[in-house]
Amino acid sequence: MPSGAPKGENCLVDMDGKAGDLFTASDAHPTGTGGAGVLAKLWLPKGFSASMAKEWIDKRRMSIRPWAGFVDQRKFSKPRNFGELCQRVVKNVEIYNSNYTFIFLGLILYCIISSPMLLIALAVFAGAFYIIHLKSLESKLVILGKELTVPHQMSLAGAVSLPVFWLAGAGAAVFWVLGATLFVIGSHAAFRELEGSDMEELLMEPV
């Protein structure tokens, strides 16, 4: 008796096809550009892409100063006056901005890893955004007569995960990261002596 359900090899082929759709769906991106199935459904906002982020990180890595010289204790001393302090801070921030950026990212990563509740809160936010975004791809999400854009979806996901962030002490974590960053970077920039070539550039700059 004929049946609409696939049998035997046909069933396996059908399941393989569905599995393939998860990773090769051509209409995953709402712009119709295609992508990598489920991963493509989590497309980034317009004007930003993973390649741009990678390019930004690569540029930072290329401009980073050697860490051995960055932490060389022989290059640290107390500034003689407030003017020299300001000169050091301005010039060192310019010279070591890439190093400082990675220190900031490292402090953020340490804060997240050392706080299990914060990890859970981030997972809740990512999961909420993922579900909301998938629903918006299936059919337009409209609230109060307005379609939810990607920023709106992220805001909704943030609202859903807000209680978890509150329980995780996210506010205190943010202040800790900012305070630790300002202390580490400010101390280094203030006490790190300028190289001879850097002093020459500083003196040659027009006033």
From TrEMBL:
It holds the Pfam family PRA1. It comes from Parambassis ranga (Indian glassy fish). Belongs to the PRA1 family. Signal peptide: none annotated. InterPro entries: Prenylated_rab_accept_PRA1. The gene is rabac1. One of its GO terms (cellular component) is Golgi apparatus. The chain crosses the membrane at residues 102-132, 164-185. It is found in: Cytoplasmic vesicle, Secretory vesicle, Synaptic vesicle; Membrane. It comes from the Eukaryota. Keywords: Membrane, Transmembrane, Transmembrane helix. This is PRA1 family protein. It is a multi-pass membrane protein.
